Amino acid sequence: MAGETTINLVGNLVDDPELRFTTAGAAVAKFRVASTPRTFDRQTNEWRDGESLFITCSVWRQAAENAAESLTRGMRVIVTGRLKQRTYDDREGIKRTVFELDVDEVGPSLLRATATVTKAGHHKAPQQPQQPAADPWTTQTPAAPQYPAEPPF
Prior knowledge:
Elements (H helix, E strand, L loop, with lengths): L4 E9 L4 E4 L5 E9 L2 E4 L4 E4 L3 E8 H10 L5 E14 L5 E14 L45
């Protein structure tokens, strides 16, 4: 939709994706990602971790099932989605605001890992294989004609 804030997030999964189903049967997986900036301190000649950003992410339908099956706690992931703000009252009646990511795409980061991708099945009816069209240029040479052993006259 127009006007939505789309962000890309790279970080580590804080916990395994939690897969649930709505009453209508739609799958939704929730997970949290921690993204920690690193900066190099030239005075001490070391890398320093900045303050971590923790964000709750939700992915829907088939992608939710795929994420729950493929991703685990500690994995470095790349997530892209729409940033959402939600306000609610907590148990003490205090108004709280949280930011969450409505995920469009999620996958493992290959910076320090490898992955084997398996295409997930989809719910279309299988198609019958089509017969190739007869191509006169690719057909085999016809066999030599068979003549009867006796002359025709």
